[in-house]
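FAQ
Q: What does a multi-component entry look like?
A: The components come first, one per line:
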Amino acid sequence: MNESRTRRRGEELIKAIHDAALEEVIEVGAGRLTMDGIARRAATPRTTLYRRWADPIDVLLDALYHQHPVEEPTPGADDLRGDLIRALRLMVEWAFSPAGRAVAAILTDPRSVALMSDALFERVFAGRGGTFTRTVLEHYAERGHFPAALLTPVVADIGEALVTKRLIDAAAPPTDEDLAAIVDQAILPAIGLGPSSARGS
Amino acid sequence: MNESRTRRRGEELIKAIHDAALEEVIEVGAGRLTMDGIARRAATPRTTLYRRWADPIDVLLDALYHQHPVEEPTPGADDLRGDLIRALRLMVEWAFSPAGRAVAAILTDPRSVALMSDALFERVFAGRGGTFTRTVLEHYAERGHFPAALLTPVVADIGEALVTKRLIDAAAPPTDEDLAAIVDQAILPAIGLGPSSARGS
DNA sequence: AAGGTAAGATACAAGCGCGTAGCTAAGCAA
DNA sequence: TTGCTTAGCTACGCGCTTGTATCTTACCTT
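Then the predicted structure of the entire assembly, as tokens:
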């Protein structure tokens, strides 16, 4: 009987557990996350979990910490509007990834938030979740496409904020038209590129 | 021993349980909400809860449903900017109320969302949580302060979206200066009232 | 080939939330 | 006052999660 061909160890096992934690939190929520649930999903005894982590949230935060950083938007040619839309689309993709969903689940769980270290918050948020459009906007501001003074913290947040609200309000993911509307009607006017100059299609 | 002077009944008891449910969900999160916890906090036997509700989320949703609708912003004199700031302040106040925090806790809990009826969603959200600035904007658009065509769904969401992001990112509530920045740098430009005409202080 | 490391399979008692049942007694109305 | 309704109290068995302990065995290193 060659059933258990491979017994997972080290990296491989840990990755399986991390994945299980992310899947589990998406399904049951941060509050109902248990060692049992994660272990069952990862098909490993609980003992293995306790050897490394103290509680389910610990596993989850560790899983998030070891996620690959999200892709950075790379401003391309001379297309501010298009780059902004692409940046927002990157954000939407991240939001629908296991990591993105897990972060959403965690953020409103009192216990999880309390245990969330600044380091993780930095890594998951300030580092990426919060600034998709900022990279693009800074790029074009430096090149004089619009006054750099207009690129305030508030303005840098407009796109992400509106997409976030869309994700909360509606079940379906925003279409490219939705993202374009956000860019045209909110971001571009804020940096002085109103309908007069940005009216493309 | 006149300990148990009053035995609560009907309305009074239900309100105590509703309050307990809201407090409980804020403290432990939607996932860890239990009949036991609510009952303990309301100082009533679990039996009483089961007589009316099937599970903890049921209690919580009922509590939210019976909350007083949030105050509507009332556009005042001739002060669009000031009215917008006041509308956002109303939103911040609601967000920090027990009901506001409870809604936040629920929205990312898979089980709760699944049980949330359209009626409740309507009453709690579309009805109020989503549109503080819209009321104000519509008022001034009708009076020709700016082109009504610019008041798109996206534009109506800008203020709420940015405040929401602020609430998620930062622990401290936004100050009036923060709200003013949102109005000046994001909302007003979007309706064609950029720095040239809105530069107040 | 030998030995150390760590995963896998049990098993266990303790604690808690669940849902129900039975009873007592307070509040309210006729 | 009588009697209906309903809150308060206690208790039970069930199942799940917890944290730990013990043993076997696969994998990796030397």
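Q: Is there any commentary attached?
A: Sometimes. For this entry: The CA atoms of residues 8 and 14 of chain A lie 9 Å apart.
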